[in-house]
Design brief:
By secondary structure, the protein is α+β, with helices and mostly antiparallel strands. The chain contains eight helices and nine strands. Strands 3-2-5-6 form a four-stranded antiparallel beta sheet, with no helix packed on it.
Length: about 325
C-alpha cells in the first residue's frame, strides 16, 4: 500500500475518541431509522457495526468491510455506507469507496437522519475522487460504437471523458464491430491521469468454408451427425448455465450462512439460506445431466463421422484371356 493511499489526519481520517464518537452516533442513527425491523436484527446489526469499528481501529479494514456488508444486508443506513467507503478507501479501492459514499448521499437525500455523516461525507468523497486514477481512451475513429472491458468487469461503452480506476495493474479490451479487438495492459499510479490512444485494425475477412459434398444416397449420415452435434451443444449449454446458477447459489449460501451463524433466530436469512441450498442442489443435478449429455453427444458424433461408410465398392474380375481374349467380368456393389 502506497503511503499516499492513507488520508492525511487533517482531512477525514478521524482517529481516537472522535472516531469512537462517530461510531456511537452511527449506531444511534441506525437504531432510530429502523422502527419496523425486528429488534433482534437491529441488535445484531449494532453488534456487527461495533465489531467493524474495532477491526477498523486495528487497521483490519478488509475484515471490517465484511461486518459492514452483513450489517447493510440487515438494514442500510448512511453511517454503514460511509464506514464501508472509508475502509475501501484505506485499502486503495477508491472506485468502491466512491460507490459507497454515493449510496450514503442518496440515503441522506431520501431523508435518512445522520448528522455525523453529513459533515464527514463531502471530504471523504473528494479524497477518493482525488486519489483514484483517471483513464481516458482516445479512439482514432470516433464514429464507431466502441466497447470496453476493464479487467473482469462487464463490457461497457467507452465514456467520452475520464474513467475512474484504482491504482495498479489493469487489462483493457476494446472492441468495435468489424475490427480486431485491441488489448492493452496498463499500470497506473495514485491520482495518475493516463491517456490511451487506440487505432483499430479491420478484421480479416475469411472466405466461407467450402461445403462438404453430400451424397443423396446417404442422408442418414448427415442427420445422425447433426443430431449428435445438437445433443452436444444442448448439453454444454445446459451444463454451463447450470454451473453458473450453482456458483450463484453457493455465493448466496456463503452470505446467508454467515448471517444465520451470527443470528440463529432470524427467520428471513434462514429461509433465504434454505432456498439457496435447494437452488444449488437443483443446479448441480442439471449441470451433471447437461455435461453427461454433451459427452454422449460428442462420442456419438465422432462415431458417426468415423465409422459410417461414405461409399464402399467391391470389384470382382475374371480375366479369361486364355479362353476368351479380352473377356472381363466385373461385379460391383456400393452402399
Amino acid at each position: 500500500m502506497r503511503g499516499s493511499c492513507v488520508p492525511p489526519t487533517h482531512s477525514f481520517d478521524l482517529t481516537g475518541q472522535l472516531m469512537r464518537l462517530l461510531a456511537m452516533l452511527s449506531i444511534l442513527a441506525f437504531m432510530a431509522q429502523s422502527p419496523s425491523a425486528h429488534a433482534q436484527d437491529i441488535e445484531r446489526a449494532r453488534e456487527l457495526f461495533q465489531e467493524a469499528s474495532t477491526l477498523r481501529e486495528a487497521g483490519l479494514y478488509d475484515q471490517a468491510i465484511v461486518r459492514l456488508r452483513q450489517a447493510i444486508a440487515i438494514k442500510d443506513t448512511p453511517g454503514l455506507e460511509y464506514h464501508a467507503g472509508f475502509c475501501e478507501s484505506k485499502l486503495g479501492h477508491y472506485r468502491l469507496a466512491i460507490r459507497y459514499y454515493e449510496r450514503a448521499a442518496t440515503l441522506l437525500r431520501g431523508g435518512a437522519a445522520a448528522p455525523d455523516v453529513i459533515s464527514l461525507l463531502p471530504p471523504a468523497h473528494e479524497f477518493a475522487l482525488a486519489h483514484a486514477a483517471k483513464l481516458r481512451i482516445a479512439m482514432s475513429d470516433t464514429s464507431q460504437a466502441a466497447r470496453l472491458r476493464l479487467d473482469d468487469e462487464a463490457e461497457q461503452s467507452i465514456p467520452e471523458g475520464d474513467l475512474l480506476i484504482d491504482p495498479g495493474k489493469h487489462r483493457l479490451i476494446i472492441s468495435v464491430p468489424g475490427f480486431k479487438p485491441e488489448e492493452r495492459n496498463i499500470t497506473v499510479a495514485d491520482a495518475e491521469h493516463l491517456r490511451v490512444d487506440v487505432r483499430m485494425m479491420p478484421a480479416e475477412k475469411h472466405a466461407p468454408a467450402p461445403q462438404a459434398a453430400t451424397s443423396a444416397a446417404f442422408p442418414w449420415k448427415t442427420v445422425s451427425i447433426g443430431l449428435g452435434l445438437g445433443v452436444t451443444a444442448a448439453g454444454l449449454g445446459l451444463g454451463i448455465v447450470s454451473a453458473t446458477q450453482r456458483h450463484d447459489a453457493q455465493g448466496r449460501i456463503d452470505l446467508y450462512r454467515g448471517i444465520v451463524s451470527t443470528c440463529p433466530t432470524c427467520s428471513g436469512p434462514q429461509q433465504q439460506l434454505n432456498q439457496a441450498s435447494n437452488d444449488k442442489d437443483s443446479a448441480t443435478r442439471w449441470e451433471t445431466v447437461g455435461f453427461v449429455a454433451a459427452g454422449v453427444g460428442g462420442v456419438a458424433t465422432i462415431a458417426f463421422w468415423s465409422l459410417w461408410p461414405s461409399s464402399r465398392a467391391m470389384t470382382v474380375s475374371i480375366d479369361s484371356r486364355r479362353a476368351m481374349p479380352s473377356a472381363r467380368v466385373t461385379a460391383a456393389y456400393e452402399f
